[in-house]
Amino acid sequence: MVFNKGHEVLNEDYEDPDKEGKEKRTILDSWVEVAPYINSLTLGDVAVVVVDREKFLAHVPSKKIDFGVKAGDPISKAGVVTRTALETGTPQIQVVEDTSRFGFPYVGKAIPVFDEKGKVIGAVFFGETTDQLVRLTHAAEELFGAVKEVGETAERVSQQAQTLSAIGSELLTSANESLKRVEETDKILSLLSNVASQTNLLGLNAAIEAARVGEAGRGFGVVADEIRKLSVNSSSSLKNVEAVLKGIKEASRKISEEVEALSQVAEEQASQMTNIAGVIQNLQALAESLANEAQNILKDN
Questions:
Q1: Closest to 285 in 3D by CA, of 127, 166, 147, 180
Q2: At which of 108, 129, 150 does a domain end?
Q3: Going residue by residue through the chain (301 aa), what tens digit of pLDDT does each one get?
Q4: How far is CA 103 from the centre of its chain?
Q5: Which of 17, 24, 54, 94 is the least buried, fewest Cβ under 10 Å from its Cβ?
């Protein structure tokens, strides 16, 4: 299959009727004719080389790749990919990581060209730049690394939030228990207040009885006065204790309310961090898939 001057597809046994005795064209001639158009038909930057078994037939440099050969140069100047395709009769591909020649890596592909009898008569080589794909691969790998790091951080924060939530729950339990204990002191204060009142009444009765018996009850009257003083002091002390306990109770209630609010916030944070961790895991899987796909494309090219 070859191209004539109008680039129409013709049988490879076609002979120009206007020129008797013209040598039969081969598929290599067709490759030479279409070589200048290949780069414009691809999305990448492709240099094209066409060779037979002895020499270069065509070299069309790309914007970035120029192998510095020309038609007629000996086949010894061909690269290993092209020579291997000629020798083995099989397609060859190689990623050239060495950037010393062009300043960037590139992919070399070569396919053998056969005549109608199946004999290798030459080869066609494509040299394609991969710098954009390499940059994409590196960007995908960096994205994967960054997302992985964020995911690990989010996981740690999530664990810390769950720990904080558990601590908040324990604090809330302790605060409620403390408030309950403080409230139980009301019963004790009530009992002590009743004792003080009864003591005061006892002292008053004793004083009345001492006054009734006169001189004989004088000593007993002194004791009665002391009992009343004790009652008064006890009542005063109980009022002070009651005021202190009231303050403690209010503080405990406030602490309980604040701890409960903190516990709710911590629980909500833990829940949100769990959701965020799940989203990041999905993003991490997507970034890893993108990095792997970029690597696979680079290998396939």
A1: 147
A2: 129
A3: 333 333 333 334 444 444 443 456 789 999 999 999 998 887 778 999 999 999 999 999 998 899 999 999 999 999 999 999 999 999 998 888 777 888 887 889 999 999 989 999 999 999 988 766 667 777 777 777 777 777 777 777 777 777 777 777 777 777 777 767 776 776 776 766 676 676 767 666 766 766 766 666 666 666 667 776 776 776 777 677 777 777 777 777 777 777 777 777 777 777 777 777 777 777 777 777 777 776 665 565 5
A4: 33
A5: 17
Phi, psi (5° rounding) for residue 95? -90, 120
Whether 170 and 263 have beta carbons less than 8 Å apart is answered as: no
Count of domains in the chain?
Answer: 2
CATH number of the structural domain spanning residue 188: 1.10.287.950
Domain check: are 188 and 251 in the same one? Answer: yes
Using a 10 angstrom Cβ sphere, with 0-12 exposed, 13-18 middle and 19 or more buried, the burial of residue 61 is middle
**Containing domain of residue 122, as a range?**
2-129
Give the helix/strand (H/E) hosting 33.
Answer: helix 27-38
Q: Are 147 and 287 in contact (CB under 8 A)?
A: yes
Helices vs strands, H then E, count in the chain: 4, 7
Q: Domain boundary residue among 95, 129, 163?
A: 129
Q: Both 269 and 154 in a single domain?
A: yes
> What is the amino acid identity at position 12?
E
Measure the CA–CA gap between 46 and 65, rounded to whole angstroms: 8
> What letters, b where the CB count within 10 A reaches 16 and e where it falls short, cover 152-184?
eebbeebeebbebbeebeebbeebbebbeebee
Single pTM value for the model? 0.45
Please state at what angle helix 131-213 crosses helix 218-300, rounded to 10 degrees.
170
- Domain co-membership, 25 together with 167: no
Q: Looking at residue 124, which CATH number applies to its domain?
A: 3.30.450.20
Query: Quick one: 171 and 74 in the same domain?
Result: no
